[in-house]
């Protein structure tokens, strides 16, 4: 899976649809869940954006 997801409620079911005697078929059922602990850890370590300027006069600054 991915770094932030995990499989839960995993079920492996043997099914007999095979046409050859030496072959087995399986059906896999699972749910995908977000791994909240890993996501939370990444959010805490995420970078921050800082906007800086050398202009000290606030009247020179515009909202654009």
Describe the structure.
With 64 residues, the chain is an alpha+beta fold. The protein has 1 helix and 2 strands, in the order ββα. Strands 1-2 form a two-stranded antiparallel ribbon. The radius of gyration is 27 Å and the shape is rod-shaped. The two termini are 43 Å apart. The model has no long low-confidence stretch (mean pLDDT 83).
Task: Furnish the topology, listing elements before pairings.
Blueprint: E1 5-15, E2 25-34, H1 36-45
Antiparallel strand pairs: 1-2
Briefly, what is this?
With 64 residues, the chain is an alpha+beta fold. It has one helix at residues 36-45; strands spanning 5-15, 25-34. A two-stranded antiparallel ribbon has the order 1-2.
Strand count, sense and closure of the main sheet?
2 strands, antiparallel
Order of helices and strands: EEH
Strand arrangement within the widest β-sheet reads: 1-2
End-to-end Cα distance:
43 Å
Rg over CA atoms, rounded to whole Å, is 27 Å
* Uncertain residue segments: none
Structural class: alpha+beta
Q: So what's the overall shape?
A: rod-shaped
- Give helix % range: 10-25%
Proportion in β-strands: 25-35%
Number of DSSP strand runs? 2
Please tell me the overall pLDDT.
83
What's the total helix number? 1
């Amino acid at each position: 899976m991915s770094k932030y997801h995990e499989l839960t409620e995993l079920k492996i079911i043997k099914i007999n649809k095979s046409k050859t005697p030496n072959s087995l078929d399986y059906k896999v059922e699972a749910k995908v869940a977000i791994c909240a602990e890993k996501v939370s850890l990444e959010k805490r370590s995420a970078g921050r954006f800082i906007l800086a300027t050398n202009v000290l006069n606030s009247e020179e600054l515009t909202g654009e």
